[in-house]
Amino acid sequence: MAEQHQPERVQWLPATDRRGFLRMGAALAGGILVSPRGRDSAHEWALARPRPTAAQLLWQQDEVALFVHFGVNTFTDREWGDGREDPAVFAPTALDARQWARAARAAGGRAMVLTAKHHDGFCLWPTATTEHSVRRSPWRNGDGDVVREFVDACRAEGLRPGLYLSPWDRNNPVYGDSPRYNNLFEAQLTELCTRYGALSEIWFDGANGEGPNGKRQTYDWKRFWDACHRLQPEAVVFSSAGPDVRWCGNEQGTAGDPNWSTMDPLAIPEPGGQFEAGKEGLLQHGDPNGSVWRPAEINTSIRPGWFYHAAEDARVRTVDDLVSLYFNSVGRNGKLLLNVPPTPAGLFPEVDVARMADWRVRLSALFATDLAGNARATWRRTGARTAELDVVLRRPATVGLARIGEDIRSHGQLVAKHSVYGQVGSEWRLLAGGSTIGYARLHRFPPASVGAVRVVIEEAVDAPERVDLALYAGGAA
Ligand code: FUL
């Protein structure tokens, strides 16, 4: 399990990191040469908090990705297939993955994740592991490969492709015969990880709806995760147990507040309902003392269901709702994975495409002009765990929206509590506040005309490091 981020070797000690230096001195004086995390130098220990790997950082910087649920359920109007579907039902009449990718781009997405196999076991690629695949469908006379068309379309539109492979498989006869199914599942993963170029994310859910008499599969997660990391070193692996990115604990579209990107890896050792039960709070909030970097991904659908149902055509999220979704996910240190289901034609529904485009227009307008762009900013530590950032605007401006960010690449996540004040005349007025910041924290507040803005770091888990601030007019854009 590659969940431990191994920081690059620290070559030098920043002159400003007096606290770390003192702690290192104390550690050396006390003869502590091996850190509790098994790192080989007190120097590393003195400075180390978990930080993102390059792959985790890229994943977070995408901010918005699209999720695509497509398969036999699209044609049977179901959410969970039972595995007995005739592959002949899979017959999209106008499948165009470029249309999905263009819509994802227009929505501001930078990645897209497709259900290569859902719980029904039907494989959207011509796998050698089972007969239950596109090969036995009439689509493209059985010569088609949805995964291929999907990854090609993603790359043509500049999106990073990811794939979802459901562990639960209601079709495969060896499911429940644990060693045999683990071999088969690894073979499926290997096909997906070796045939289609670089993937950005590999997505595992924890669902298993088998009843009391159902088959019980014991998964070899370590083996699956190792295979992903070996074959796709640039991809992050998602599940409720990570190891690289974690489920946020709900499917409604809300990250926790606080939302720490660190976790205790032992708290949820494996994906699956039995490990997740009662841990929703932990998935939502993370753990400030966690030893691994495992940020939260917020997966939700633009419609009530994950798969397309014509009956839900009038229940597509509104633009206002999508804007709130962005604030509650990306704006709370999360990454948004927004599901849009193709129709039986094989196209994103027009109403969803239009809604997403309008959503992006609204977001672009909200974030068009950073009023703090060329302002004078000063950062000062005010105590061991407190600090302030002052931003003096070139001229007074009306602000109603703030974006704050920590330098997670260099320092991980530190801030536990913060407030934002605006200077209105000679008075400092509280505009907004909250707990964690992380990669991004967005605050909307009643617009106020201010000459300066102060971000007060009131609590941190270590000496706070400089945060970034952008300010926007906000209001009802
Ligand atoms: C869950 C599945 O059971 C749902 O059908 C859907 O794919 C969701 C994203 O993950 O575990």
Task: Please describe what this structure looks like.
The strands form 3 sheets. An 8-stranded parallel β-barrel has the order 1-2-3-4-5-6-9-10, surrounded by 5 helices. Strands 11, 12, 13, 14, 15 and 16 form a 6-stranded antiparallel sheet that branches. Helix 7 runs parallel beside helix 8 and helix 11 packs across helix 12. Strand 11 and strand 12 form a beta hairpin. The longest helix has 18 residues. The protein is an alpha/beta fold and 477 residues long. It starts with 17 loop residues before the first helix and ends in a 5-residue tail after the last strand. It is globular, with a radius of gyration of 24 Å. 48% of the residues are buried. It folds into 2 domains: 137 residues, Galactose-binding domain-like (Jelly Rolls), CATH 2.60.120.260; 311 residues, TIM Barrel. The structure holds beta-L-fucopyranose.
Summary keywords:
477 residues, alpha/beta, Jelly Rolls, TIM Barrel, 2 domains, 8-stranded parallel barrel, 6-stranded antiparallel sheet, 13 helices, globular, disordered N terminus, binds beta-L-fucopyranose
